[in-house]
Amino acid sequence: MRAAASLGSILSSGQQSFSFELFPPKTPDGEQTLWQTVREIEALKPTFVSVTYGAGGSTKENTVRITGEIALETTLTPVAHLTCVGASRDELCYVVGQYAAEGVNTLLALRGDPPAGLNTTWTRHPDGLDHAVQLVELVRSLGTFSVGVAAFPEGHPESTDLEQDARVLAMKQQAGAEFAITQLFFRVEDYERLVEMSGKAGCTIPIVPGIMPVTNASQIERFAALSGAAFPADLADRFAAVSDEPDAVAAMGVEVAAEMCQQLLDAGAPGLHFYTLNRSRSTIEVYRALGLGA
Length: 294
Description:
294 residues; alpha/beta; TIM Barrel; 11 helices; 45% helix; 15% strand
């Protein structure tokens, strides 16, 4: 039986959390891989798993379905993504209602990337919302949901500076957000700076660092570019030295991620959130390298 307490209160309790992110597959084979990963992750008893919404809300129906199935058919606590992209206020309310009907009571409220793609101007739906702060307010007005938001260790790509980013995170808390999960990053000092600056801006909610173990260096560089994260040159050189050995790349990815995770926990991070890309091997190896699993 799941705890009655909200995820926000669980994350604020001081007990370290461990969680994993999944995305809705687009093919039957992809769905089989997803559910295999779900069952492998379930055995680790994580605090929660999150399910992404897809670029431009493109996987909305699948996200609702899969998140509901996780809630109904597993012992996992699902967190459903919700974005403002391409949706009116009424459509957003409808999706929130779908989640509630599926027994999902925790949402990650995101503005989302510009509909036209990276490095383009954000355009809201004519009857929609402009900012994640507004989406947090909307979700909280619709029921007793626990709401999380995104945080950006290296700054949101559209922010003028890191101070503005910290103020926005504090505004999300004021709107009703109970926790934050960061975009992926590769330098512990970026996370520490985010926490410090956000605290000075009045933000006290738990900020969970998001980690993606490197399994393919070029792929990670692409994800880093999409999220505005820097892939450090020294790290890129280490992976380049073994780039023609896939097993060596994966092993180094686990080693680097485990070291970073331990540093984050030692620095007081409330937990760790692993971006899995629907494959559990590397994240489970990191989890076990930290002494968290058998």
